[in-house]
Amino acid sequence: MEVDTAKIDSIIEKYNRDRSYMLAMFQDVQRLYRYLPKEAISYICKQLDIPFSKGYEMATFYKALSLKPRGRHTIHVCLGTACHLRGGPNILETFERELHIKTGETTEDGRFSIETVNCLGACALAPLVRVDEHDFGKTTQAVVKKIINEFTDGVKS
Ligand code: FES
User: Which residues of 10-41 are buried (b: 16+ CB within 10 A; e: fewer)?
Assistant: First the structure.
């Protein structure tokens, strides 16, 4: 894919071309494209005079960075201890079944991606699901279907 080098240049400048901010640059690029294209890693590495392998290694190490295109809505299913004990794995399975994708994948229409996280810091609401910036606490299988419909019908799209 072709990346907008002018936009990436301004991200690099924002951090004064400082190599120690490469991770922050990657995060900004991800915000721009909803994922981190390999071409952007390569461009940033070139600009900072860092071997591509180093940048790629960092990009694959941090779970928050995705090298694959993400859906318009990212469903984060919490599998921290509290959520795990209160049915998080079942909630995850239900999302996977309903959307016909596995964790880490994106639906064909590009609408949803599923990710897991380890504690979203609101354990009293376990099992917790976060879709983009919306939290859904004490999630049940019925709520999973409601969430999918809500975001599919464009209410929060
Ligand atoms: S374990 Fe899920 S919010 Fe803490």
Answer: ebbeeeeeeeebbeebbbbbbebbebbbeebb
Query: What pLDDT is stored for residue 34 in this prediction?
Result: 85
- pTM for this model (two decimals): 0.73
Which of 119, 129, 136, 139 best tests ligand 1's pocket when mutated (most atoms within 8 Å of CB)? Answer: 119
Q: What is the SS3 assignment for 44?
A: helix
Render pLDDT for 107-131 as a digit per residue (tens, 0 to 9). Answer: 999 999 999 999 999 999 999 999 9
**Domains of the chain, each with CATH number or no CATH:** 5-61 (no CATH), 73-152 (3.40.30.10)
102 phi/psi in degrees, rounded to 5 = -100, 165
Ligand 1 center–CA 89 separation, angstroms: 12
Q: How far apart are CA 98 and CA 119, in angstroms?
A: 23
